[in-house]
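Subject: Mn-dependent transcriptional regulator

B.,
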Amino acid sequence: MQVSKREEEYLEAMYILHKNKGVIRVKDIAKIMNVKPPSVVDALKKLAEKGLVEYEKYDRILLTDAGRKIAEETYSKHVFLTKFFVDILGIPPEIAEHDACQFEHYVSEVTVKRMKEFAKFIQEQCPYVLKQFLKEKLEE
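Prediction pasted inline below.
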């Protein structure tokens, strides 16, 4: 199923809310997404039409299995990319977080898989080289 970057962002926000609070509310989604509640309601209706959420006005909001799968994949990419940018490339955490949020929606699973393989290789086989690289980046 084809979903837009924005739809992935909504699904990821709902996943995080459910994970952290156990409940998903329009006002909380609006806060995370930095939008007004009516925008959230519109997005929920579209996501419900695609079978990614269960939503009825003034009722609870739930991710369907399909919606949860997309949200988990997006969130997992986000977490990995942030960690890769910080731990392997030496990017400051606040920049890494922002960049990961953008990058996660466009990078393929093939690329993420290869990045994970590279990170594992460099951390296990070349820890001294990685340490030197990061030290030089911190000194810049």
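The chain has a mean pLDDT of 93.

T.
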